[in-house]
Amino acid sequence: MPQTPTGLPFDDIRNLIPEMLGPDTAAVKVVREREAHLTKPAGSLGRMEEIVEWLAAWQGAQRPKVTRPLVAVFAGNHGVTDQGIAPFPREVTHQMVANFAAGGAAINQICIAYDLGLKVFELALELPTGDITIEDAMDEKTCAATIAYGMEAVAGGIDLLAIGEMGIGNTTIAAAIMHGLFGGEARDWVGPGTGLNAEGVARKAEVIAKAVARNKGALKDPLEVLRRLGGREIAAMAGAILAGRMQRVPVIVDGYVATSAAAILYAMDPGALDHCLFGHVSAEPAHRRALEIMGKRPLLDLGMRLGEGTGAAMAMGIVKAAAQTHDGMATFADAGVSVSE
Ligand SMILES: O=C(O)c1ccc[n+]([C@@H]2O[C@H](COP(=O)([O-])O)[C@@H](O)[C@H]2O)c1
Ligand SMILES: Cc1cc2nc[nH]c2cc1C
Questions:
Q1: Which residue out of 71, 92, 110 has the highest number of ligand 2 atoms within 8 Å of its CB and is therefore the one to mutate?
Q2: Which of 96, 165, 305 for a ligand 2 pocket mutation test, highest count of atoms within 8 Å of Cβ?
Q3: Is 87 in the pocket of ligand 2 (CB under 6 A)?
Q4: How remote is the CA of residue 229 from the centroid of ligand 2, in Å?
Q5: What is the three-class DSSP state of 152?
Q6: Interval between CA 68 and ligand 1 midpoint (Å)
Q7: Would you say the CB of residue 284 lies under 6 angstroms from ligand 1?
Q8: Under DSSP, is residue 291 helix (H, G, I), strand (E, B) or coil?
């Protein structure tokens, strides 16, 4: 029986988990059937074939298409930068948002190359979240409202969503979340981010260890991990992933930071990411570890470590091509090509 609502914002989020839609298995069957008749040896498009089945399952479409793809980039600032864990100053978050608007960032060009929509969600950059070594990142109301705001990325009839972020200091935030959710040692989850040296990485591990130790009693509740150790862009990305599930829009997740948002949902329910494709494995070393724990196989491994949704957008190009190929190819019967004996 559903529990009596208490009116607490997190309960509204928690209540969505059992409501998540499942895969459309009938659509997958139709795709498999067509796949078998296309003019190519069976299985010869490898993972592209799996991708089309994944699209069918989560778009709920027997003939899946990617005609309105969107890359959503969420930007937030972090009080933990006061601890000297990032080589670039916090103003860079705002400056890069201006660069996105002017079309000068890497993500702008990848979106042009693959004809992808791009929307940037700026999340109160003038109000960094609390320094997680001494206080909670957010209160419950802010965290829940930001998750809800992220859900707005799934709007306007989009048929595929890629999520990425921009936020100086957020590889520290991602590492704290991963350490909080998946345990181990802080050093297992830490990396150079935008370019820390070995000494900086060691200092960053101490900062992460301190933040997680402060919250030892609350690590069993993933939404509390998000509220205490997270950031606004992480909360918004978690909301976008959930909204994709509810509205039948499959989601491509970017690098280490975006994966930390996905990990919150995974910890709530391991099936919560079934509609997600992990676009790439970042060069941030702990990304691979996180994906392995969650049993996810990334599509690309290009040595990228930029964020901004760039790895997810690269994968989106492949997903678009997979859908187009399945949709547009001739069958053996159409083309008069002899079948195998
Ligand atoms: O997501 C990743 O795999 C990733 C790896 C390294 C850096 N980043 C980006 O770099 C910024 C965070 O790095 P830092 O060193 O400031 O923590 C932030 O804007 C991220 O988008 C992102
Ligand atoms: C220049 C710059 C661009 C970025 N894009 C995503 N994170 C970034 C961090 C920096 C420092």
A1: 92
A2: 96
A3: no
A4: 21
A5: helix
A6: 27
A7: yes
A8: helix
The shares of helix, strand and coil residues in the chain, as percent rounded to the nearest 5, are: 55, 10, 35
Taking CA atoms, 308 is separated from 71, 109, 256, in Å, by 9, 12, 11
Q: 88 in ligand 2 pocket by Cβ < 6 Å?
A: yes
Picking from 55, 245, 270, 16, the residue whose alpha carbon sits closest to that of residue 153 is: 245
Q: Distance between alpha carbon 17 and the CA centroid of its chain, in Å?
A: 17
The CA distances from residue 142 to 76, 138, 226, in Å, are 13, 6, 11
Using the structure block, give the residue that is written with the tokens 């992220």: 150
Q: Which helix (H) or strand (E) holds 261?
A: helix 256-268
Domains in the chain with CATH codes: 67-319 (3.40.50.10210)
Whether residue 308 lies in the annotated active site: yes
What gap in Å lies between CA 301 and CA 299, rounded to an integer? 7
Cβ(62) – ligand 1 distance below 6 Å: no
306 in contact with ligand 2, CB cutoff 6 A = yes
Q: Per-residue confidence of the chain (341 residues) as pLDDT tens digits?
A: 344 455 679 999 999 999 999 999 999 999 999 999 999 999 999 999 999 999 999 999 999 999 999 999 999 999 999 999 999 999 999 999 999 999 999 999 999 999 999 999 999 999 999 999 999 999 999 999 999 999 999 999 999 999 999 999 999 999 999 999 999 999 999 999 999 999 999 999 999 999 999 999 999 999 999 999 999 999 999 999 999 999 999 999 999 999 999 999 999 999 999 999 999 999 999 999 999 999 999 999 999 999 999 999 999 999 999 999 999 999 999 999 999 98
> Which residue's CA is the closest to the ligand 1 atom numbered 22?
307
